Amino acid sequence: MAWAILFTAGLLEIGWAIGLKYTDGFSRIVPSVLTLAAMAGSVILLGVALKSLPIGTAYAVWTGIGAVGTAALGIILFGEPATALRLASIGLIVTGIVGLKLVA
């Protein structure tokens, strides 16, 4: 169950990272409230997952999910470049996440 909670926390991290783009410097109320809620939810769920997962593994997986998801959505939503090196780098992060899950 801790892994599912951690995965959800990672998804919320993606949500708040992408949400920052839509807050316009926290000048838009609805995107700002949603982004802050995602931030709080992400950290709270990370804390819950840490009750049974090692901190190093959980934090690395949490940030990895956020980094991969945010980079992918940057490509999809904002037209950021999808160069071979960028995609390979994202793949390395995914490999690291999977590796940490396998050894935890």
Write the layout of secondary structure elements.
Layout: H1 2-23, H2 29-49, H3 55-78, H4 84-103
Helix pairs in contact: 1-2, 1-3, 3-4
Detailed description of the structure:
This protein has 104 residues and is mainly α. The two termini are 14 Å apart. It is 84% helix and 0% strand. The chain has helices at 2-23, 29-49, 55-78, 84-103.
Uncertain stretches:
none
Q: Give the helix tally.
A: 4
Question: Topology as H/E string?
Answer: HHHH
Question: How many beta-strand elements?
Answer: 0
Instruction: Report how far apart the termini are.
Output: 14 Å
What is the rounded Rg? 14 Å
The 3D shape can be described as flat
The largest sheet is: none
Strand content: under 5%
Class of secondary structure makeup = mainly alpha
Give helix % range: over 70%
Q: Which structural traits does this protein have?
A:
104 residues, mainly alpha, 4 helices, 0% strand, flat
Summary, kept brief:
With 104 residues, this protein is mainly α.
